[in-house]
Design a protein that fits this description.
Oligomer: single chain
Distance between the termini: 63 Å
Number of domains: 3
CATH architecture of the largest domain: 2-Layer Sandwich
Number of helices: 16
Shape: globular
CATH class of the largest domain: Alpha Beta
Radius of gyration: 24 Å
Length: about 400
């Protein structure tokens, strides 16, 4: 395939996104080890800046361990609504270049710029434009990988962080990848990576050249696919505007809960959060699910279909509480470590309203008022009284 027809794929990954936003907003934090995450006994690191990473701290690490490694770290509670707002600014830059944007999280996305080159220049020029525009608008740095496919673009974006622009062309494959650690292979996972290294395969080149006799015990039917991935072969398309399959909110508690009133209060707050996200995306849900994790880590889910589909906080919370009560009837003395509410079977609220004779009403005045206040002052700007700690009420939503 000629160079003119070869795909041009970018992977854009914001550098230490949450922590970088905090440093930008509070310049006194610059140069200090900054961790964004919950500071409770069960808190985890949501983001770590590059200063604190030198101490071995990384995202998803238990906060207790992170503070053992770097006791002097500055810990900041996450401001998710603020990070989401900045993310929208970043993604707006992507959509000015191409409609083929596949968001993977708030801070990373794949872009197919193959057809954009005629208007915006070659892929490297486009990558430089994106980095410069993001910096000008948000004062934040992004790292970009440029490659002929998604797999190699993602590997490239991580090779020279932060503030990197790394190009790997098809002519350089697989030689450019062969010397890399197998840990660079996206999706391999820590546990599987340990198994692969124990089998004597430490680099992508060794994995690519390994025999079926070595690879089959590790990967089974995925043996050939893993060999191809190690060689940088990937034909997955960039999938733009991926539809939400579900929206969820969950909370891990500092202390295991067993009081039914407290559990329902927490569940109401979670249902409220999930419903607000539905309305923000102009979606309605046809199913609500509750996730319960006991103190012994056993995890349960219960779900209920909603007819008609809705985005009403009261309806969703009432259904969630009904599910929780039924679960508690099965496990009346259980102590709960985590609660979650998820809404699924999502569809555009306006579409449902059009074809179902108004089955999806406008948000109730209370929901609309709360959404407006939260949009202006942040998610923590307003809470329902029933969800406040120590709030006294009878079990069951109102």
């Amino acid at each position: 395939m000629g160079a003119a027809r070869e795909r041009a794929i970018l992977h854009v990954d914001m550098d230490a996104f949450y922590a970088s936003i905090e440093e930008r907003d509070e310049p006194a934090l610059r140069g200090q080890p900054v961790i964004v995450g919950g500071t409770s006994a069960r808190g985890v690191v949501a983001a770590a800046n590059y200063v604190v990473r030198r101490f071995g701290v990384h995202s998803a690490m238990p906060m207790r361990r992170a503070l053992q490694l770097c006791p002097q770290a500055v810990c900041i509670m996450p401001r998710m609504s603020h990070y989401q707002a900045v993310s929208r600014e970043v993604f707006a830059v992507f959509h000015e270049i191409t409609p083929l944007v596949e968001g993977r999280s708030l801070d990373e996305a794949f872009l197919d710029v193959t057809a954009s080159r005629a208007l915006h220049g070659d892929a490297v020029t486009i990558a430089r434009t994106i980095k410069a525009t993001i910096l000008a608008r948000t004062r934040l740095n992004a790292s970009v990988g440029v490659a002929p496919n998604k797999l190699v673009a993602k590997i490239a974006s991580d090779l020279e962080k932060p503030d990197a622009l790394t190009v790997i062309s098809s002519a350089e494959l697989p030689q450019r990848l062969d010397a890399l650690s197998i840990r660079r292979l996206p999706g391999l996972g820590r546990k599987k990576g340990d198994e692969v290294e124990r089998a004597g395969l430490e680099t992508l080149g060794q994995l690519r050249r390994a025999s079926d006799a070595v690879l089959w015990p590790l990967f089974g039917r995925d043996t050939q696919r893993m060999r191809e991935r190690a060689g940088g072969i990937d034909d997955r398309p960039v999938l733009p505007d991926r539809e939400d399959l579900s929206i969820s909110a969950e909370e891990t508690f500092d202390t295991d809960l067993s009081d039914p009133v407290r559990l329902e209060a927490e569940l109401l707050a979670l249902g409220d959060r999930a419903s607000e996200r539905l309305r923000r995306k102009s979606l309605a849900a046809g199913c609500v699910a509750v996730k319960v994790r006991r103190a012994d880590f056993a995890t349960f889910t219960r779900q209920l279909q909603l007819e008609p589909a809705t985005q009403d906080s009261r309806v969703i919370s009432r259904a969630a509480c009904d599910l929780l009560r039924k679960w508690r009837a099965e496990y009346p003395h259980a102590r709960v470590r985590l609660l979650g509410v998820a809404v699924t079977d999502l569809a555009p609220a306006t579409q449902l309203d059009l074809f179902a004779a108004g089955s999806v009403p406008q948000p109730p005045p209370l929901d609309a008022a709360m959404d407006a206040i939260r949009q202006r002052f942040g998610a923590a700007g307003l809470q329902r009284a029933v969800g406040l700690p120590g709030g006294k009420r009878k079990a069951g939503p109102r």
